[in-house]
Amino acid sequence: MISKEQFQKEIEYIITNAIREDVGDGDHSSLACIPDTATGKAKLLVKDQGVIAGVEFAKQVFKYVDPGMEVETLIEDGSAVKHGDIVFYVTGKSQSILKAERLVLNAMQRMSAIATKTNSFVKLLEGTGTKILDTRKTTPGIRALEKWAVKIGGGENHRFALYDMIMLKDNHIDFAGGIGRAVQKTKDYLRETNRDLKIIVEARDLNEIEQILEAGGVYRILIDNFNYEDTRKAVKLIGDTCLTESSGGINEDTLRKYAECGVDYISSGALTHSVYNMDLSLKAV
After folding, report:
1. Active-site annotation holds for 9
2. Residue 210 catalytic?
């Protein structure tokens, strides 16, 4: 993953662009009927159940919109919530609260849904030693928020983007002329460009597992779309040479069975691409 500093920059980009998109040259609904001097208070109300996420992000949004706004946090990120819970109160200029409202809600509803789904996967893996990973199958423009939500839910982040890790998948391998050539070219590239990036290589069958092991220098092998039996064989074949990761349509029904095959990680795009927003609202007090 990228550094904390770079991750924070991504969050700042999201806030800046989202406010630009939503507010434009002004929130004319509020400007038209609410005095600039008016102050108010609102509560973040939960109308669902699950794991709350995005509280710390909301604080950054409020600060960006108006540094004078104050947030009183009652429930922290990663906590279980139920219908009727109040997560925080925000006080300040009424116009400022309304200007920030939609971004806060859009982000928290999405992040809470992802954290909730991730947490359900984490619970299914309890006792196996296998960790759940996200993927790059995220909503364009808000990847940092979605990966943040996965962490809040108890999962682990895969690479952030194309630039912070090498991942040789089937198309890379085929275009490069095979696993051996793809891995060697990658090692040469990293040496020539003086880059220190971990290498993950995808395997489509046990024969490719053997080719990857022969090539060497790989951080993790992606055991993609294997059945349970072949996954166990792959894990045994790899041993302690490198880390292992299962992927490919793994869901709540099959998650634990793949974990019991002994893999270190299971990656799931469903954590971020197949969730329903948690129902939250920001109500004036």
Report:
1. no
2. no
